[in-house]
Design brief:
- This protein is mainly alpha-helical.
- The chain is built from nine helices and no strands.
Amino acid sequence: MMSKLVPQIIKMLDDQNASVRDQAMTTLIEVYRHVGERFRLDISKDINPAKLSTLLTRMDDIRSAGLVLVSNCSAGAINEETFVRSFEDVSKIYISSAKDVSERMSRIRDTLSDKNADCMEKRTDVMKELRGLLLAGAPEYAGFEQLLPTLEPCLTMSVKDLRSQVIREV
């Protein structure tokens, strides 16, 4: 079924309507997230070079951010069950109130915003705390939905720092 749909989506990259083109690009990126590098290689020959360059750049960004759900390399590859188990493997957190959630989220944001290059371990610890908050039911507390977007800038910075660190090590 996928092989029948992908060519149609690729054709939509050249549609006259910009929103159709954008949605086609987004759809191909989403398929890439689920299928992995094999998909990238398969479609590369079917897309015009200008669109391909943009698409490959976005795919690189997705891969660098760790958002590809399938890994084609055997070293380090995990399945969904292993990922969920790892996500839930955090210290149990007890939440006493919405104020407690707010204070913890503030601490998490402050640590993730710290530009000190030696604090990657601290960032990892607070990411575990964030996962613990989610598992403990933080989204059910008043104000959580407003607190979550405040993490976006520092999460973006952390991902870029991690990407830079990985590139330096390679």
